[in-house]
Every structure is written in structure tokens, then in C-alpha cells.
Amino acid sequence: MKKRITQDDYIKANRKASREAEIEMYGHPIYHTRVHQSKKVYNRKKIKATDKKLPLSSCTSRQNVIQSVPVLRLLNQ
């Protein structure tokens, strides 16, 4: 018996080939149904991550400020 290629088989093979070509082109699969997130939306997690990258973020805590006050007084004298 000859095996016939059904429409479902054709669609499945086409999707697989398209996905493999996409991975080869971009290095990873691309999401086509992902919702675009607006930059204007408040995102606490992203804000905290950028604050950690700042060089003075460790000096802004209250304990570090209290400890650095005597050092600043000695430097100003």
C-alpha cells in the first residue's frame, strides 16, 4: 500500500521546517503570540534591577550613611 500524504501531514511538516529555519536564522525560537509590554507600565522589578546597577546604591542605605558621617567630618577638618 502506498502511504498518502494528508493535509495534516503537510501542515505539520511545513511548521517543523519553518521552526527549524527560524532557529537557524535567529539562534532561538521566536514567539509570535507574545503580548508587547508597554514601557510606560510601572515595573517594580525592572526599577529595582536598574537601581542595583548604580554605583552609589550601596552608599544610600541609612546604615552606610551613618557610618560615613564621621569619616566625612575627619576629611573636612
UniProtKB/TrEMBL annotation:
Protein name: Uncharacterized protein
Organism annotation: Bacteroides acidifaciens
